[in-house]
Amino acid sequence: MERDARVCVMGEDVGHYGGSYKVTKDLANKYGDLRVLDTPIAENSFTGMAIGAAMTGLRPIVEGMNMGFLLLAFNQISNNCGMLHYTSGGQFTIPVVIRGPGGVGRQLGAEHSQRLESYFQSIPGIQMVACSTPYNAKGLMKAAIRSENPVILFEHVLLYNLKERIPDEEYVLNLEEAEMVRPGEHITILTYSRMRYHVMQAAKTLVNKGYDPEVIDIRSLKPFDLHTIGNSVKKTHRVLIVEECMRTGGIGASLTAAINEYFHDYLDAPVVCLSSQDVPTPYAGTLEEWTVVQPTQIVTAVEQLCR
Amino acid sequence: MSSAFSAINTIQPLHRTIDNPSVSPFLGSTHKLRSFPACNRAPSASSIRRQFSVVAVSDVVKQQKTKSGSSLSNLLITKEEGLELYEDMVLGRSFEDMCAQMYYRGKMFGFVHLYNGQEAVSTGFIKLLTKEDCIVSTYRDHVHALSKGVPARQVMSELFGKTTGCCRGQGGSMHMFSEEYNVLGGFAFIGEGIPVSTGAAFTSKYRREVLKEANSDQVTLAFFGDGTCNNGQFFECLNMAALWKLPIVFVVENNLWAIGMSHLRATSDPEIWKKGPAFGMPGVHIDGMDVLKVREVAKEAVERARRGEGPTLIECETYRFRGHSLADPDELRDPAEKAHYATRDPIAALKKYMIENKLVNEAELKAIDKKIDEVVEDAVEFADASPHPARSQLLENVFADPKGFGIGPDGRYRCEDPKFTEGTAHV
Questions:
Q1: Where would I find the Transketolase-like pyrimidine-binding domain in this sequence (chain A) (predicted)?
Q2: Which fold has domain A7-156?
Q3: Is A112 a catalytic residue?
Q4: Which CATH number fits domain A179-306: 3.60.15.10, 3.40.640.10, 3.40.50.920, 1.10.10.410?
Q5: What predicted TM-score, i.e. pTM, was given to this entire model?
Q6: CB–CB of B199 and A44 under 8 A?
Q7: Considering only CB atoms, which chain B residues are within 8 Å of A228?
Q8: Element (H, E) at B49
Q9: Chain B: residue nearest A78 by CA?
Q10: Which of B244, B173, B232 is nearest to A75 (CA)?
Q11: Helices B346-356, B79-104: inter-axial angle, 10-degree rounding
């Protein structure tokens, strides 16, 4: 926001409140009420407003207070955000960033625990990235803001409290690249967002048991970084996808299809995909736990794959 | 002086109009209205903002006309303005008529929505704008684009799906865009253009207040119909525009029909202009078949927005002479209703006004008719002769930055693959 005066924020409670997860804390004090705009509760309309502003020269960042609320903005995200550059024959660009906290939290109930990656992934014309660490959150956010394409940045409700030392000097990550978390030889585990932590937890157990998993945080949900993923598959010949998305039509489903299409020859076993259950996230703690993939399930899946 | 409440009592009960649709309940409304008084409250900043009067434009026009006969200085327009308005409306009409012909000859396809009969609204408003002002429309957008200055050739080419169209043939009838003339669409889903127009107005305000561009006073006009006025996005944007005093004018083209749904069957209170004061902006109802009346009110509303005083809601009572689209058999509308509005053809009305007031003679108008015929013919010839898009165009413009297609298995960005420029790559 300091570098480019056209960058502005729009969303509910982003201004005076500092954002429901304090992502925009103090920005309104620094940049004023128009640059950090507290909107009324009208997701479809203020997302559309951001799109109109982007078409006329601004670079807005739209915050969905919870990603789930962006379901109300689906009309604008699908029709206008994704398609306007094409239907206008390239005349108008839509450099918006749409971001917000999503995913399964701690007993937040079904509607506040949604994983919208799968719903948005088919929209032509948008890019989707998911951050998972303070380091890549900053780098991806900057990249998304500077991109001329509309980008949806998925944050996770349970990851806001992570602490990490990050560089003082400016850095911008690549929106289309995946992140190598732990190189290995035996199996490729592809994951993103919060499940990265479940995978790394499982990885500790697996290493103790003598396995050497390669963990890749795919980060770019659309498009997939086929280079990083492909190199890994060519090395390990086994793929496990661990995601929080639902099983049906999810990111994992698309990733499985892409891997089978491009790297079929290199696979020694079918791609295994561990996703959340296709259920509305239950409120009860125990049920919620069984909805998402847990580290023990990951360990079991790796053991089976590597047999 | 009637208060808002007594004004409601003078309006004919609406049930009657369902049986007799040719009698509109608000023809020639001449009452002055005030927004609801802020009762039991000390005047706060917001209630002071709401104390404006809403005037039906027929009052303004009647006052001006009865002043002193028809001396030229009291006319609403000069000869040059009159000719400009006439030419623009004739262009709109001839263009749309040609579209119908071309459609039935198999040159354009899909859903084509023609504007015949509504020309006074487009001409009355858009001819007041500068090139930097923005307009946003719906699928009935050909004439809005033409009024804003997009060349007829580009619009016709777009309709034919050729590369020389304003959107390279990728948008079509319902998606007219022009960066040069600030036409921000062309939207197929009604209501979805209104937030976009609100955003364009937001940019204008942002430019002035944040970027400190003192000359930034671009106004945005949002055009949409009666059906849209029951849609959430309409109300949400009225709220935001009034809240932040955005430089926008909401223009309702109430032609009484949303495909086959009569406005009266769809709307609890069909007087759309009343919805403006509910959100804190003036609401005006005007005769949308009279370009001079439209222009008078439009002038006020656009100036108001430019001064930074905020939005206005203007309901134009108008009518489409053709069906909803070229695919619409148009069986539900009463022939008597159509006949009634045919007598109020805006082009005929302006012609009559100018001739009776001796602004122009028949020959000058005929010369314009002929000129427009040639423009439209030329547009068709140009479109016909233009090339269809090649396959290589398929994947262009999906992303402004084609890196968005991602990194391929070989480590290179997929957009560097020659199959992308050929349009044969699979994304």
A1: 1-162
A2: Rossmann fold (3.40.50)
A3: yes
A4: 3.40.50.920
A5: 0.89
A6: no
A7: 407
A8: helix B45-49
A9: B192
A10: B232
A11: 150
